[in-house]
Every structure is written in C-alpha cells, then in structure tokens.
Amino acid sequence: MAFVSNRRICIFCENSEQKINYKEFKTLRKFITDQGKIIPGHVTGVCAKHQRHLGRAIKQSRNIALLPYSVDPRHF
Amino acid sequence: MNYYETLYIVHPSLESGRLKDIILSVEESLKKIGGSPLAMELWGKRKLAYFIDKQRYGTYVLLHYNGEGKCTGEFAVELEQNPNILAYLTTSIEKENVLEQAEDLDTQIAGKTRESQRTESSSEPTKTTETEPTEVTTQENDTIDATADEVTSEGGDEQLDPETETKEADTSEVENEEESVEVGEAKADEEPLEATENESDKKDTADDEVSPEEDIESKQENADETAAVSEEE
Fold first, then answer.
1. Which of B70, B99, B154, B220 could connect to B39 by a Cys-Cys bridge, CB 3.0–4.6 Å?
2. What family does the database annotate (chain A) (predicted)?
C-alpha cells in the first residue's frame, strides 16, 4: 500500500505572491480564532517559517488596533 | 539610509482642516529630526479593534520615509508626546515597497470626507427614523417635567402638604374600612368552615359510634348461627 500523506501544503508556500503583512488584517483574520487567539500551524497547515511571519504580523496588527488582543466569548 | 513606514492613528474628532494641520506638523517634525517623507496615504476613519483613550474610532495615516536609524526613536518620542495621536507603529521596509505619492494631501482628505459623507447619507434614513421619536419623547418629557416643576413652584409646598395629608388620611381610612370589611368577610368565611368541620367531626364520631353496634349485631348473628349449628348436631 502506497503511503498517502494527509499533510496539507502551506498556502503561503503555494502562492509566493501572497505576502504576509500586518496591514492586510483581513487575511490575518483567517488565522485567529473568534476570541482573537492565534491558531497553531498544525491546524491551519501553515509551515513553520510562515507561521513565524504570521505570528509577528498578527502581533503588529494588534498593536495598532487592526486586530483585537482578545474578545470576550460572552459577546458572540 | 534606511526606509521606514509609520502607521499612526489620529484622534477621530479632528475634522479635515485640523487633520491636515496635524499631518503637516508630523511631517515637519520628521524633517527636523533628519528624515525625509516619501509618501503619505490616508486610510480614513476606521473602527478600532479595541478602545484607545476611550475612543472607538480613529483616523489611520500611513507615512513612508527614509532616514538614519536614530531618527525612528526621536520620531517615536515626537508621536508619543502628541496628544492627538492615539497610537503608532514603525516598521522598516524595503526600497521596493515604498509607495508612490499618487495624490496630494488635500485630495485625499477631500475624498475621505466625501466617502464618510456618503456612508453617513446612506445610513441617515435609518438613523433619523430611530432618533426622531426618541428626541420627541425626550422633549415631551422635558416639557412635562417643566410643567410639573412650575405647578409645584406655583402651588408651594405648604399649601400642597395639608391636601396631601388629608388625601393620605382619607385613603388610610378607606383602607381601614376595606380591611375591616375584608376581616369580617374572612371571619364569615371562617365560621361556616368551622361549622362544616364540626359537622364532619360529628359525622366521623357518629360513624365511629355506629360501627361498634354493627360489630355487636354481627357478633350476635354469629352466636345465633353457632347455636343453630350446635342444635342441629
């Protein structure tokens, strides 16, 4: 039986044109939860290199109030 | 010579004229420090992800400039001391990522003000329908309160107090009468209940009294039957 990998390919590795930047908070919003937590890379399929870039960009967006630090789950 | 970009948030209460003054003053302070602004982009008024200085909205301004490494720290001190700037973020960028200044500051501010006016005009009908009735009710309430105040001020407290006391006394008397009537009714209700309870008790006692007689009769019948059986034998 041939080995079938379930490992997803990083979307930033696939699309080299898609850059990770703190100003594109609409893209970054896909990688945080409703509470504002950063989703781990093994859940989203992002590679370690781009996960580091994502984490830095999300933290920069939080600093300038483009993304929330935390959202109270009672407000959903 | 490095290239930097600073995104800062201006206080939302600043309108087009004062916003232009703030942006120009920031650029002048940057020039004094030693940097040279290359491009400026106005994002317009946006909703913040969290409150900053009790403000829900803020005007985002993006500034690209180049300069020595020390100018970023001095520029940060300038932005920190400016009370009209809520927050700022400085990052280093590559030369290829520097924006080209397409429009000057006046046209950008005018365009953002038009956009904000359009959004306000599109959202006005719903707002007016929601706000008008509340305003009317508040005005009515104000007028009612004003008339009430006038009446109280004209009548005086001393004149009103005896009337209110007599009214209170009347109402207390009426309440006492009602209470007495209620008590009487309650007593009338209670008496028949007691009577019925006594009757039921009597019935129970009668039943208890009857039952021994029946037992005696049944015993007598049993004795007669036993006697008849013995006679037959």
1. B99
2. Belongs to the bacterial ribosomal protein bS18 family.
| Smallest CA–CA distance from B52 into chain A, residue | A65
- Rounded Cα distance between B72 and B91, Å, is 9
A60 within a domain of the structure (yes/no)? no
**Which tens digits make up the pLDDT trace of A51-66?**
999 999 999 999 999 9
Decide if A67 is inside a domain. Answer: no
Place of tokens 């929330």: A68
Cα–Cα distance for residue pair A55/B138, rounded to 1 Å? 50
Q: How many domains does chain A have?
A: 1
Q: What is the pLDDT of residues B6-58, one digit of tens each?
A: 999 999 999 888 999 999 999 999 999 999 999 999 999 999 999 999 999 99
CA-closest candidate to residue B99, choices B64, B68, B72: B64
Rg (CA), chain A: 14
Helix (H, G, I), strand (E, B) or coil at B169: helix
Q: Is the CB of residue B1 less than 8 Å away from at least one CB of chain A?
A: no
CB distance from B10 to chain A under 8 Å? no
In terms of residue numbers, what domain contains A25? 13-42
Q: How far apart are CA B76 and CA A39, in angstroms?
A: 32
Q: Which of 91-120 (B) contact A at CB < 8 A? A: 91
Which pLDDT value is given to residue B195?
A: 45
Rounded-to-integer distance, Cα B34 and Cα B16, Å? 27
Burial class (CB in 10 A: 0-12, 13-18, 19+), B67: buried
